[in-house]
Amino acid sequence: MKPQRKKRLTLILFLVAGVGIAVGLLMYSLSQNINLFITPTQMADGEAPVGRTIRAGGLVVVGSVERDSESLGAKFKVTDGNAEVTIVYDGILPDLFREGQGIVAMGQLNTDGVFVASEVLAKHDENYMPPEVQDALEKAHVDGKQSLEAARY
Amino acid sequence: MWQWLKQLYHRLGSPKWFYEITGKWIPWLAVLSVLGCVAGLVLGLAYAPADYLQGNSFRIIYIHVPAAIIAQSAYVMMAVAGAVYLVWKMKMAAWVAKVIAPIGASFCLIALFTGAIWGKPTWGTWWVWDARLTSMLMLLFLYFGVIALQQAMDSEESGFKAAAILALVGLVNIPIIKYSVEWWNTLHQPATLKLTEKPSMATEMLIPLLIMIFTTYLFFALLIILRTRNEILWHERKRSWVKEILEH
User: Fold this and answer.
1) pTM for the predicted model, two decimal places
2) Angle at B58 between CA B56 and CA B63, to 5 degrees
3) Under-70 pLDDT residues of chain B
4) Contacts with B54 from chain A: Cβ below 8 Å
5) Which residue from A49, A78, B29, B71 could staple onto B107, CB 3.0 to 4.6 Å apart?
6) Does A34 contact B169 at a Cβ distance shorter than 8 Å?
């Protein structure tokens, strides 16, 4: 390779590596702000600010959903496998909302440690399967899936 | 092997050679793209079972995932072509980088658009500022920046140089897009197709997806070839071999 070209190639490699390192460090230092939501464990550890709008995420605990018969209001718990947080929400829940499903809620943590949500989004996982397969899986292990999915959070 | 690669590399630098050899590939690529697209879409939309949770709305994956993969592959290709131009001053590389930019931007836009359509019924929102969606939007803006820089300078050459540098700087965004769903909490789900593990998708849903990804690559190759040939004809229009072609 001609020395001129070698020089230019080295310059380009340094440019790409330099930008990579700079952006990598930036991302690392900002990682808490890039996270879309806060996990129930972080809330239990007191990392979540009270009274400020934040997002909370986790799996809806099976058997925890209580719907108000008079209004749209719903109360449920979400978990990440370690800690749980209670969420109250007055609005239309997404179609995919169900027990055991991952959700992301936007709202505020009040002083009682209850998360008052103004928006609830369903989080989808990376598994795709036909309904028959899901039925067979459920028969095989009814509660195995919840703990398996909880491990991902 | 190395000698052969070196020879191929030097040949790729010759517009005339590229023009002649790709002329033979076009019909094949076109036929295979159409057949693959028909097969993939019929299998995906009609024969694959509905998802246990999402029902039929998951079928947008057959457009969304191939488009997103091509958008990223195209960007890497564009940056590599830009580097080749900066180092070896190969004109062909600059033209390839120029023609890829709008194609990649289009696929990026398709991925963002289909994602929003899918997000509304699945998540409950069109858009959320999570790491995956935001980094993908950054990719679209990088494409726009490259396209703008290519045209912004007085001489075409300095435009290509500036655009190549921007493309190389933006390369850092590609691993961010790929790993965003693993490094941070996002609303977007992690990858279904993994290089090292079994895909977490039923086989009858997976086969049409793989066909669609492969076909979209073929279609992408076809688009690049067609547009590069136009660039060649335009830039080499005063050469005798081009004049000969145009006369016939």
Assistant:
1) 0.88
2) 115
3) none
4) 96, 124
5) B71
6) no
| pLDDT for B51 | 87
Instruction: Report which of residues A37 and B217 the model is more confident about.
Output: B217
Residues 59-88, chain A, touching B (beta carbon < 8 A): none
Rounded Cα distance, B182 and B28, in Å: 39
What pLDDT shows up at residue A146?
A: 56
Q: Where are the domains of chain B?
A: 27-191+201-247
Test B185 with A39 for CB contact under 8 angstroms: yes
| Per-residue model confidence (pLDDT) at position B207 | 93
Q: Is B61 on the interface with A (CB under 8 A)?
A: yes
What are B65's two structure tokens? 């995932």
Residue A35 tokens read as 């996270």
ipTM: 0.78
CB contact under 8 A, A35 and B184: yes
- The listed CATH number (1.20.120, 1.10.10, 3.10.620, 1.10.287) that belongs to domain B27-191+201-247: 1.20.120
Q: Is B209 exposed, middle or buried (0-12, 13-18, 19+ CB in 10 A)?
A: buried
Q: Are A49 and A56 in contact (CB under 8 A)?
A: no
pLDDT band at A49 (very low <50, low <70, confident <90, very high): confident
Helix H or strand E encompassing A64: none
Please report the pLDDT score of residue B217 as a whole number.
Answer: 97
Buried b (16+ CB within 10 A) or exposed e, B53-74: bbeebbbbbbbbbbbbbbbbbb
pLDDT score, position B136: 96
* Dist. CA B55–CA A131, nearest whole Å: 9
Is the CB of residue B135 less than 8 Å from the CB of residue B173? yes
Q: Do A130 and B204 touch (CB under 8 A)?
A: yes
